[in-house]
Design goal:
Blueprint: H1 12-15, H2 18-27, E1 34-38, E2 43-47, H3 49-55, H4 57-64, E3 72-75, H5 80-92, H6 102-111, H7 115-127, H8 134-143, H9 147-159, H10 161-165, H11 175-182, H12 191-209, H13 215-222, H14 236-242, H15 251-262, H16 296-311, H17 316-322, H18 325-328, H19 331-334, H20 337-346
Parallel strand pairs: 1-3
Antiparallel strand pairs: 1-2
């Protein structure tokens, strides 16, 4: 840990180490041979070329290249205190990193190619992964081209998908990062959660673009991300009630899904995937049969409703598998005509 340099020392060259002497000269602006005009207030901050060049090849090119900077360099995009903190890392290879300065330090470290500071910032961010920060860190990894940080955040989202996808922060992802989340086979969330998360993101994106929030507008803003929703994995009843009747699928997509549901061997999917993710739906809880049936008509209606619910449980692919030649003759006797008509017309 570098020694604080806030006090004046009568004989600092004799009392301090070489590293501490450099730090002292920076803090007290002694013999600075280059200056930076920083922030909106254009505050001048002095430094020493040899120190900067020893830590960054960007500064070497800046001072000695064909387009070498003059004695004053403009850095308007950051505040003076943040810039000083970055320079303290260059002079001492040490300093505090916290939630308030980590992104500014990462930005400056990437700009001036100081890999030691980059690694410290990425480590700090990765150590603070949680459901509230995971999407933010995916986005920052994408912006700063830090693939390791992005992959760590995506891994966290996979493992905590049910919490993250139902939270508010996923709406702040860019489309590229949303695609990275939705295409994963390791998402531990139901396809229903994933589909509704995509719709909420699309609704927020429509608001950002000033578009209406219709089903088709959501479909448009989702773009390529829409194809990573695995519609065959949705529960059958949910698919029929909330997807087929919602203006988000094209006629071609409806036809593709319908053909697949009826005969997946003959009509394989071209647009959507039916590959299962890490999450598995819990088995349905069996319903207890009534002990006595006072009225045969009421008992028959109850039996039909139970048969209908059991038949439509699970994903659409599982429902399709039940529609075998051997079963179809039994289905009409247990399900109402309206239920059968609703099912087959929807498919």
């Amino acid at each position: 840990m570098a020694r604080p340099m806030t006090m004046e020392l009568a004989d600092w060259q004799a009392q301090l180490s070489a590293l501490e002497c450099n730090h002292y000269m920076f803090e007290h602006q002694i013999h600075c041979d280059v200056h930076f005009r920083v922030g909106a207030a254009a505050q001048l901050i002095g430094a020493h070329r040899y120190v900067l060049e020893s830590r960054s090849d960007v500064f070497t090119v800046m001072f000695h290249g064909p387009l070498a900077e003059k004695d004053v360099v403009d850095v308007s995009e950051v505040e003076p205190e943040d810039f000083k903190e970055f320079f303290r890392f260059l002079y001492t290879d040490d300093g505090p990193i916290d939630a308030d300065n980590v992104l500014v330090l990462l930005y400056l470290a990437k700009k001036y190619n100081v890999e030691t500071v980059v690694k410290r910032c990425v480590t700090f961010l990765a150590d603070n992964l949680c459901p509230e920060t995971a999407c933010f860190l995916v986005e920052q990894g994408h912006i700063f081209n830090e693939e390791d940080l992005k992959l760590q955040a995506l891994k966290f989202i996979n493992e905590h998908a049910r919490t993250v996808l139902n939270g508010p922060h996923v709406h702040d992802l860019c489309k590229e990062c949303l695609v990275a989340v939705l295409r994963s086979d390791k998402l531990y969330a139901s396809e229903k959660d994933i589909y509704e998360c995509a719709l909420r993101w699309a609704s927020a994106e429509c608001a950002r673009r000033g578009r209406s929030d219709s089903g088709w507008d959501r479909r448009v803003v989702l773009g390529s991300a829409f194809c990573h929703i695995r519609f065959p994995l949705l529960p059958a009843r949910y698919f029929l009630d909330n997807v087929m009747r919602y203006e988000i699928l094209t006629l071609k997509e409806k036809l593709e899904l319908t053909r697949f549901f009826l005969d997946s061997d003959k009509y394989p999917l071209q647009t959507f995937s039916a590959r299962r993710r890490a999450y598995k739906e819990p088995p349905p809880i069996p319903k207890r049969q009534p002990a006595n049936r006072q009225d045969r008509g009421q008992g028959g209606a109850s039996e039909a409703r139970e048969a209908e619910a059991q038949f439509l449980s699970g994903s659409v692919s599982e429902v399709r598998q039940r529609l075998t030649a051997r079963q179809r003759s039994a289905i009409p006797r247990r399900m109402s005509f309206a239920a059968r008509l609703y099912l087959f017309e929807s498919l």
